[in-house]
Specification:
7 strands; Adenoviral Proteinase, Chain; 16 helices; 2 domains; hydrolase; alpha/beta; 5-stranded mixed beta sheet; two-stranded antiparallel sheet; ubiquitin-like protein peptidase activity; Peptidase_C48_C; protease; cysteine-type peptidase activity
Length: about 400
């Protein structure tokens, strides 16, 4: 059963099938690393090759394929569940299961490294001015269509005018943010992450243009409805994390995560000055402290609809130690302009779905991520454009 579950992954992609059909006697680490790099590793531009051709032929297909294979590994096979099931049924002693598990884990590691290298090297080749030209190839024809009142036919949530918010030096809008949050959480079901719509923050977290200071019975019903809607939209019977995209009245984007498994609530704000001004201050004096209090209250409400049998709702705060931790100003990648905040929020969700910890302390890693956001923007534009032609259901 376990072996069939893992081997079933190979049916999704010919490249994965080739890797899994290697004989059992191979050196799994070395052979899979070699095979994975041969399939997806970075290829530098050829002599005389235009950067647009390089992006279309070498960079974009590799990022897409490696990302999709990684998603399949993460979602088609829930490794934790497989291991627990195998242990319960005393099946883990079979060599085939061990080899299949080992191959899955090695391939996942290889893909993560390949994607990291793709972005590091791609960033050095595709500079922001090149990315701007690449985006223009999509946006300019669409901009012309808006004059004729023509819209996307296959996705109703996002209009042509919304797509143009992905242009360079523009802040994305609620419709684009909600589209990706809804799509991605449905595509990563084993992560059990639900994402609220951006309209929750406008309704519940802010009042009269400022962070809300008090909650009321009416807000309780509204908050539960938003949580139930997010859960229903993903089709999950249970969830372990709630991702909250936050759109300030000023237009700035940031995000929050309620993690019931790790027992933590963190707010991720990519605007560096906000972090610097609040780092080291007493928590109650930090600028996002009022939002944290509302999120703690919301986390209590949503615990009642998680779908966990026999798990009572809980209370945060007060004198009793709940075991939870709270960080109103987690250290995340900083934006280096005033328009990429929404791209950072989508990057937050993407990394959460991949199981990464966002609260970062490595300055070198921060700088690497900061330099690659012009690439992330153009990849989002291509993803949305492709979905408009052939939407993900």
């Amino acid at each position: 059963m376990v072996f069939n579950t893992i081997q079933g992954l190979a049916e999704y992609n010919p490249a994965i099938r080739e890797l899994f059909e290697c004989p059992v006697q191979i050196n799994v680490d070395l052979d899979l690393d070699y095979q994975a790099k041969r399939q997806w590793d970075f290829v530098s531009p050829k002599n005389g090759e235009s950067l647009s051709s390089f992006f279309d032929v070498s960079f974009l297909p590799r990022v897409r394929d490696a990302s999709e294979c990684l998603r399949l590994i993460e979602t088609a096979v829930d490794l934790g569940s497989v291991l627990h099931s195998a242990a319960d049924k005393h099946e883990v002693s079979t060599p085939e299961v061990f080899v299949a598990l080992q191959r899955t884990l090695v391939l996942k590691r290889s893909l993560l490294l390949i994607l990291k290298n793709l972005f590091i090297l791609g960033t050095s080749v595709i500079q922001p001015d090149v990315a701007k030209d690449l985006l223009r190839r999509i946006s300019e024809p669409l901009r012309t269509l808006t004059a004729f009142d023509i819209d996307f036919d296959k996705i109703k949530e996002v209009k042509l005018k919304d797509f143009l918010y992905l242009d360079q030096k523009r802040c994305i809008n609620d419709e684009v943010m909600n589209y990706f949050c809804s799509k991605w959480t449905r595509m990563w079901p084993t992560k059990r992450v639900i994402a609220l719509t951006t309209f929750f923050s406008a309704k519940a977290l802010f009042e009269h243009g400022k962070p809300r200071e008090q909650v009321c019975d009416r807000l309780r019903e509204v908050t539960l409805t938003y949580g139930e809607t997010a859960k229903r939209r993903t089709g999950f019977s249970r969830f372990d994390k709630v991702f909250v995209p936050i759109h300030e009245p000023s237009g700035h984007w940031f995000s929050a995560l309620i993690d019931y498994e790790e027992k933590k609530i963190e707010i991720y704000d990519s605007w560096g000055p906000t972090y610097e001004q609040n780092s080291g201050r007493n928590v109650k004096d930090q600028v996002h402290a009022p939002l944290m209090l509302v999120l703690m209250w919301a986390a209590e409400l949503w615990s009642s609809i998680r779908g966990i049998e026999d798990e009572p709702t809980f209370e945060l705060g007060g004198d009793k130690d709940s075991g939870w931790t709270y960080d109103p100003h987690a250290l995340v990648d900083f934006q280096d302009n005033d328009f990429d905040c929404g791209i950072h929020v989508l990057d937050h969700l993407n990394r959460i779905l991949r199981g990464k910890n966002l609260n970062r302390k490595d300055e070198l890693t921060l700088k690497y991520h900061q330099r690659s956001f012009h690439l992330k923007r153009i990849l989002l534009a291509h993803e949305l454009y492709d979905d408009a032609k052939c939407p993900i259901v």
